[in-house]
């Protein structure tokens, strides 16, 4: 399959030639410089070639991407001026680099680093088998293509792993560098500590020859003279590089205390502007990283270990993390800032929700069996891990949020972790860090291996929003991380599952009785149904499809490159269709099977597929095999594909009964809504005999639904709005409630509460994007001025995608 990429479209290219060669391990050695807003250092890639590599034939030759028809000319980068020949000599700031980065100290915006940085080049890379003329001979050579963007690559070299002392202990070919790398990667899982140690030693080894490289908009291309196949290409290479301040994988900003910080933002381009890598999910790899920063900063990262700083000279500290479970490079996460750790109280088994006893069918899926994934030290193989309800966890935030974290977040973590374990079994990851990220974070949460980012918006009001979002991100440990989508266009496999599971986890964490849990879940389903209907009416049809590639889902080109449709569309970040349609499909299936049967199956599915990548059919086929014949009418993989996953809008003609029962609100709640409608219709001067209405206390989800009903009223009087705010203390509620309150304020031009809108736009940026649109659509000069003023105040710190969307609304 030949993929042609049009840089003017909003599709995201994945250009790495993963069908030919795979990165199996990364070793990063980086310095974080806040003054220049640059991360710089080296990354060593340990590669494994496939078994399909042959000499190139003319039928697979493709010209190098360029605006001209000339052959691609590779050049050596400008040499670094400060070589270090003694690999055992470390500076106080440089960890185990064997050379020092040149040109440090200035904010790098020019890209003048001795190699191409061609933004004007075409972004199309359809194959790694290029016909490249180096200018001094006419032979064709293997090209390693890595996903890379917004990076200044300074030097690429082969690593002499044969020079590592002691390497002969576990290799039969101590002089064959590629064989050494192969045997190092082939060490059994129980020798993972030794393997990591030798990866680190190899990464420090001297170079044994610089490699030719070039870049274009989306890739870094590397070759070695004379290496004509992936097997011949060096299997350990070191890339010296630096990020750019405007790079899209990380954001440099200030935290809520006004201190500088930098963190990965879940960018549409993933991590390719943080380090050169293989982005396609099939490139499952492990990693280890040493990161140095000023001693006042804390470095958090995706890692199995709870890293502690090592003090270096000159007021710098070094942090080291590692991961032994292979995962896509896109899941790598880092956050560096002046975070304060909030240590939870030591919890005992009495402090958390009591674990219910399991039925025999549930217990069957808590055994230690054979795993289906590639070999790694798997927690599903450890008896102690399978019974660990609450994994070790830490919470970090700016010091000014300490009180809010202690009051709202810390008490929720143990019961939410325990609830997740009671539903799905073994926690895939051994520990969890939770970080409250800066206000410019464009989402309520983001899960990565061993670390979760939460928005500050989750800390306000009651515990409902914080608890449900925490449960959502915890669910991603299973669906999204331990089990990932092989094709990123199938986002529902991550977000649909996490949305469905968050309600189940949250009900158990609250220790609700079955009828209470059912009522809560049906209310939340009702809210989501309204949201889905709204999204379907107001979004492009092509972006409502959960499996847009249809029968080509999971297909890649001969080289392994592919395209994520609409991956660069800034509005896609704010769409919820993958969450909502996926949620309703799973809710429908759970109702059809019966929830006990469904969740018993889900545990079996997790045991079968953890550590692997899946497509929709993997889940659906296994599910249907577990459904009794009498419950399978109209259910088939083909029907579900056609009606749910490959069509826009809401499925038509399905037996939706069990799914939409939630649309009938409880009588008590309907009475509350009716009361407010009556209050709103009353004349300003009431007769004395009219009785004052008495309103029940409402929970956050009920308040959201009430406000949504009132938003449907053509007119809501200032008197009614004032009563609403007073009775329910709306400005003190959680962000979900305040968002609907702000919509009411804007719609009815309730000027007395404009301060609440301003506060929301500043402090709840993850949820406030479309409020800007409503302010502008009102065509009210005061509201439009409010929108522009708030945007100017936050624009510089705002997430790039969010700023782009808002600017389009305002100007």
TrEMBL record:
Gene3D superfamilies named in the record: 3.30.2010.30, Neutral Protease Domain 2, Peptidase M1, leukotriene A4 hydrolase/aminopeptidase C-terminal domain, tricorn interacting facor f3 domain
Cofactor: Zn(2+)
Gene Ontology MF terms: metalloaminopeptidase activity; zinc ion binding
Short name of any one Pfam family annotated for the protein: Peptidase_M1
Main location, first listed in the record: nucleus
GO cellular component term, pick one: nucleolus
Keywords associated with the record: Aminopeptidase, Hydrolase, Metal-binding, Metalloprotease, Nucleus, Protease, Zinc
Compartment(s) where it occurs, according to its Swiss-Prot or TrEMBL record: Nucleus, Nucleolus
GO biological-process terms attached to the record: proteolysis
Domain (Peptidase M1 leukotriene A4 hydrolase/aminopeptidase C-terminal) ranges: 667-810
Function noted in UniProt: Aminopeptidase which catalyzes the hydrolysis of amino acid residues from the N-terminus of peptide or protein substrates.
Family: Belongs to the peptidase M1 family.
Protein name: Aminopeptidase O
Organism: Bos mutus
């Amino acid at each position: 399959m030949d993929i042609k990429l049009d840089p003017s479209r909003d599709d995201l290219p994945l250009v790495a030639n993963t069908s030919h060669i795979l990165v199996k391990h990364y070793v990063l050695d980086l310095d974080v410089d806040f003054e220049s807003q640059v991360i710089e250092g080296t990354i060593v890639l340990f590669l494994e070639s496939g078994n399909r590599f042959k000499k190139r034939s003319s039928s697979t030759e493709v010209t190098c991407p360029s605006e001209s028809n000339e052959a691609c000319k590779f050049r050596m980068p400008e040499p670094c001026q400060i070589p270090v020949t003694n690999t055992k000599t470390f500076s106080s700031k440089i960890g185990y680099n064997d050379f020092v980065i040149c040109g440090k100290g200035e904010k790098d915006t020019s890209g003048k680093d001795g190699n191409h940085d061609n933004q004007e080049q075409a972004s199309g890379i359809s194959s790694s088998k290029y016909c490249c003329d180096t200018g001094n001979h006419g032979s064709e050579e293997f090209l390693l293509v890595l996903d890379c963007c917004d990076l200044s690559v300074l030097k690429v070299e082969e690593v002499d792993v044969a020079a590592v002392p002691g390497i002969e202990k576990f290799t039969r070919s101590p002089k064959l560098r590629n064989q050494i790398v192969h045997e190092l990667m082939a060490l059994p899982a129980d020798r993972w500590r030794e393997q990591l140690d030798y990866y680190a030693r190899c990464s420090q080894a001297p170079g044994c020859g610089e490699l030719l490289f070039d870049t274009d908009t989306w890739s870094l291309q590397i070759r070695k003279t004379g290496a004509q196949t992936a097997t011949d290409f060096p299997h350990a290479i070191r890339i010296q590089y630096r990020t750019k301040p405007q790079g899209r994988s990380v954001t440099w900003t200030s935290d809520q205390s006004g201190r500088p910080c930098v963190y990965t933002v879940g960018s549409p381009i993933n991590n390719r502007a943080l380090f050169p890598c293989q982005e396609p999910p099939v490139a499952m790899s492990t990693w280890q990283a040493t990161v140095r920063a000023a001693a006042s900063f804390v470095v958090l990262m995706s890692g199995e270990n709870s890293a502690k700083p090592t003090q270096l000279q000159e007021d710098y500290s070094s942090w080291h993390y590692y991961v032994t479970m292979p995962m896509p490079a896109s899941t790598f996460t880092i956050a560096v800032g002046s975070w304060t750790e909030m240590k939870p109280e030591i919890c005992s088994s009495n402090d958390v929700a009591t674990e219910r006893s399991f039925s025999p069918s549930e217990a069957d899926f808590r055994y230690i069996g054979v795993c289906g994934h590639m070999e790694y030290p798997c927690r599903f193989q450890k008896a102690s891990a399978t019974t660990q309800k609450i994994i070790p966890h830490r919470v970090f935030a700016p010091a000014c949020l300490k009180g809010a974290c202690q009051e709202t977040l810390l008490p929720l973590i143990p019961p939410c972790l325990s609830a997740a374990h009671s539903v799905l079994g073994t926690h895939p990851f051994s520990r969890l860090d939770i970080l409250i990220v800066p206000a410019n974070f464009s989402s309520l949460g983001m899960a990565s291996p061993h670390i979760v980012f939460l928005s500050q918006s989750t800390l306000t009001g009651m515990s409902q929003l914080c608890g449900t979002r925490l449960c959502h991100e915890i669910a991603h440990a299973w669906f999204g991380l331990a089990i990932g989508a092989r094709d990123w266009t199938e986002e529902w496999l991550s977000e649909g599952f996490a949305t469905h599971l968050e309600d189940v986890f949250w009900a158990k964490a609250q220790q609700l009785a079955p009828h209470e849990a059912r009522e809560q879940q049906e209310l939340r389903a009702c809210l989501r149904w309204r949201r889905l209907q709204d999204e379907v009416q107001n979004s492009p049809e092509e972006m409502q499809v959960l499996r847009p590639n249809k029968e080509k889902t999971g297909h890649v080109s001969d080289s392994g490159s592919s395209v994520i449709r609409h991956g660069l569309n800034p509005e896609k970040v704010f769409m919820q269709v993958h969450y909502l349609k996926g949620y309703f499909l799973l809710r429908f299936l759970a109702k059809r099977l019966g929830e006990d049967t469904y969740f018993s199956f889900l545990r079996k599915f997790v045991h079968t597929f953890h550590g692997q990548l899946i497509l929709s059919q993997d889940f659906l086929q296994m599910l249907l095999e577990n459904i009794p014949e009498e419950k399978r009418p109209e259910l088939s993989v083909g029907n579900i594909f056609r009606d749910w996953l490959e069509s826009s809008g809401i499925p038509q003609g399905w037996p939706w009964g069990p799914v939409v029962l939630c649309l009938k609100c409880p009588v008590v709640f309907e009475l509350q809504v009716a009361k407010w409608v009556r209050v709103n219709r009353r004349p300003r001067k009431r007769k004395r005999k009219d009785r004052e209405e008495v309103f029940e206390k409402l929970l956050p989800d009920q308040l959201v639904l009430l406000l949504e009903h009132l938003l449907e009223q053509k007119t809501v009087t200032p008197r009614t709005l004032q009563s609403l705010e007073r009775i329910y203390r709306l400005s003190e509620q959680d962000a979900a409630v305040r968002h609907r309150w702000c919509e009411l304020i804007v719609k009815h031009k309730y000027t007395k509460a404009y301060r609440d809108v301003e506060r929301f736009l500043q402090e709840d940026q993850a949820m406030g994007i479309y409020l800007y649109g409503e302010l502008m659509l009102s065509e009210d000069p005061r509201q439009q001025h409010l929108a522009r003023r708030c945007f100017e105040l936050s624009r510089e710190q705002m997430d790039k995608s969010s700023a782009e969307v808002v600017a389009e609304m305002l100007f």
